[in-house]
């Protein structure tokens, strides 16, 4: 029995399912080949503030989706910036980057590596990187499937 079919008999006595809704992902647009993949996954970082990585993850809060953006310094392998919001727009990773950049002494020459998500390809985010003099690097699309397969096989 599917979850929607089971929902009909539950509705009569006033019961509500606690099944979390599925997250709707947008289809990917064109690949941003103009943004290079500098390290090509060769992250040999010898000191802090050389390479930062960014990612946005989705968290179910019980009522709605929340979005968490994290900036990670690859030298220490610890988060240096984070931001959380109920809206997955380009301001979310910008807040995380600002939180990382200010307290770390406004470092120059940092490279920021991320996936090709709309958060990181937006004009506002790229302008912030330019203002902070941070080089941008992005993984190529074909590596996303490889990473997903590796994550699945490493859990087994």
UniProtKB/TrEMBL annotation:
InterPro entries: Integrase_cat-core, RNaseH-like_sf, RNaseH_sf, Transposase_IS3/IS150/IS904. It holds the Pfam family rve. It comes from Salmonella enterica subsp. arizonae. This is IS3 transposase. One of its GO terms (biological process) is DNA integration. GO terms for molecular function: nucleic acid binding. Signal peptide: none annotated. SUPFAM superfamilies: Ribonuclease H-like (SSF53098). Residues 44-156 form the Integrase catalytic domain. Transmembrane segments: none annotated. It comes from the Bacteria.
């Amino acid at each position: 029995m599917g979850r929607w079919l089971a929902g009909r008999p539950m509705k009569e006595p006033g019961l509500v399912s606690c099944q979390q809704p599925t997250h709707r992902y947008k289809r990917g647009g064109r690949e941003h080949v103009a943004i290079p993949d500098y390290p090509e996954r060769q992250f040999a970082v010898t000191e802090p503030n050389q390479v930062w990585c960014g990612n946005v993850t989705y968290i179910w809060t019980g009522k709605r989706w929340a979005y968490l953006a994290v900036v990670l310094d690859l030298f220490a392998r610890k988060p240096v910036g984070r931001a959380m919001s109920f809206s997955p727009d380009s301001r979310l990773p910008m807040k995380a980057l600002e939180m990382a950049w200010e307290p770390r002494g406004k470092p120059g020459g940092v490279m920021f590596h991320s996936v090709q998500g709309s958060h990181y390809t937006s004009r506002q985010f790229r302008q912030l990187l330019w203002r902070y003099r941070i080089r941008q690097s992005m993984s190529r699309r074909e590596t996303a499937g490889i990473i997903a397969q590796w994550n699945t096989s490493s859990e087994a």
